[in-house]
Amino acid sequence: MILVSSCLAGLEVRYNGTHCLNYKINKLIEEKKAIPVCPELLGGFSTPREPAEIIGGNGEDVLDGKAKVIEKSGRDVTELYIKGAYTTLQQAKNVKATVVVLKEYSPSCGSSMIYNGEFIGKKMGGNGVTTALLKRNGINVISEKQLADHSISL
Questions:
Q1: Considering the chain, what percentage of its residues have pLDDT values greater than 70?
Q2: What is the C-alpha to C-alpha distance for residues 31 and 41, in angstroms, rounded to an integer?
Q3: Which of 5, 32, 67, 119 has the fewest CB atoms in 10 Å of its CB?
Q4: Sign of the alpha-carbon torsion through 117, 122, 124, 128
Q5: What is residue 102's three-state secondary structure?
Q6: From its phi and psi, is residue 77 left (phi > 0), alpha (psi between -120 and 50) or beta?
Q7: In 42-58, which positions are buried (b, 16+ CB within 10 angstroms) versus exposed (e)?
Q8: Alpha helices per DSSP H over the chain
Q9: How far apart are CA 20 and CA 87, in angstroms?
């Protein structure tokens, strides 16, 4: 089974209430090969919500207590992101996920690039909090951009 970011499945769960429908992912869900998951909603957020970015590092640093996830207004939401990551990890284990496809750039889901914490649209290399936790637990995480190159049979 494959877990996929809910926003990539067409669900309007992004911080601004939109989605990022990916037709390949939508097809996997229709064929019952994939299950949508949103770490941020699992962490306790609602939609819409204030944008947040990792300040002082990346997802690994957040898990290690060296960085925080902060909303644009300055509110520390680190614990909610960590809660969502652990709940997503449990779901991945429950369905024996072979791969997890998460939305690039997100402070939860970014798997190679995230926003740099300045809230100016600038990106940097790094994992989001959920991706970092899944990878620490041996789960293969890719972005929607890598999905096209991945050997998932449709």
A1: 97
A2: 24
A3: 32
A4: positive
A5: strand
A6: alpha
A7: bbebebebeebbbbebb
A8: 23-30, 39-43, 59-63, 78-94, 129-136, 144-147
A9: 22
How many other C-beta atoms lie within 10 A of the C-beta of residue 79? 12
The two structure tokens encoding residue 30: 């229709």
Within 8 A by CB and 6+ apart from 64, the residues are none
The alpha carbons of the chain give a radius of gyration, in whole angstroms, of: 14
C-alpha dihedral sign at 3, 40, 6, 53: negative
Q: Are 72 and 140 contacting, i.e. CB atoms less than 8 angstroms apart?
A: no
The predicted-structure confidence for 17-60, as pLDDT tens digits, reads as follows: 999 999 999 999 999 999 999 999 999 999 999 999 999 999 99
Tokens of 144: 């929607």
> Which of 88, 81, 83 minimizes the C-alpha distance to 35?
88
36: helix, strand or coil: strand
Q: Are 128 and 5 in contact (CB under 8 A)?
A: no
Q: For the segment 60-91, what is each residue's pLDDT rounded down to a tens digit?
A: 999 999 999 999 999 999 999 999 999 999 99
Return the closest-CA partner of residue 102 out of 134, 136, 63: 134
Name the pTM for this structure: 0.95
